[in-house]
Write a structure and sequence with these properties.
The chain is α/β, with parallel strands linked by helices. The protein has one domain: Rossmann fold (3-Layer(aba) Sandwich). Strands 1-3-2-4-5-6 form a 6-stranded mixed β-sheet, sandwiched between helices. Helix 1 crosses helix 6 and helix 2 runs parallel beside helix 4.
Length: 203
């Protein structure tokens, strides 16, 4: 079941005014699939910013099952409603798992990044990788899409959201989605790039 977590404010500034929005635009890896919402890495990001930089709010517009095509179709409306200062783009995993054409994914992700930039938002592009059973050519082409877009569009880049998750117990029974206990690792992978954008030290 696709769960829409659109415009869910996860952190608030003290005055409730003049806050800068960080939009997380992703799929089930960012929508806290299979775990409590408050345990997801996006909610943890909201809590961290609440303590360290309360001028920022986090809006989670991630949809479980979303593809790059779905994201490209809804990015304009999402940007118009949230008016973000920063957009974290975390899409592509479902394209890869379905074996969709890499060229189409690249086109869609580039469109999302470009739309965000046109609205004046800074972008963090989050990369994904596939297991080797999808075939070496497809796996390599898929991985390269994210770094190529980050380079061409000159945006911040997180090479692999799931970096550091190397134990079976860090995933749910489906072996695809990280457990609640693993979410802080995802947060740190994103935080290393995001911290400098919100004028905070990474540690």
């Amino acid at each position: 079941m696709r769960s829409l977590l659109f415009a869910a404010l996860l952190a608030f500034n003290g005055s409730g005014a003049d806050a800068s929005t960080i939009l997380v635009f992703g799929d089930s890896l960012s929508s806290a699939y299979g775990i409590p919402q408050k345990a997801g890495w996006v909610a943890l990001l909201g809590e961290r910013l609440k303590q360290r930089s309360p001028d920022y709010t986090v809006v989670n517009a991630s949809i479980s099952g979303e593809t790059s095509a779905g994201g490209a179709a809804r990015i304009a409306k999402t940007l118009a409603s949230s008016k973000p200062a920063i957009v974290i783009v975390e899409l592509g995993a479902n394209d890869g798992l379905r074996g969709l054409p890499v060229g189409e994914m690249k086109k869609n992700l580039a469109a999302i990044v470009q739309a965000s930039k046109r609205e004046g938002a800074r972008v963090v592009l989050v990369g994904m990788q596939l297991p080797p059973n999808y075939g070496v050519p497809y796996v390599n082409q898929f991985r390269a899409v994210f770094s190529d877009i980050a380079r061409d569009e000159r945006v911040a880049f997180v090479p692999f959201l799931l970096e550091g998750l190397d134990k079976r117990e860090q995933f749910l029974a489906d072996a695809l989605h990280p457990t609640a206990a693993a979410q802080p690792i995802l947060l740190e992978n994103v935080w290393r790039k995001l911290a400098t954008m919100v004028m905070l030290p990474s540690k």
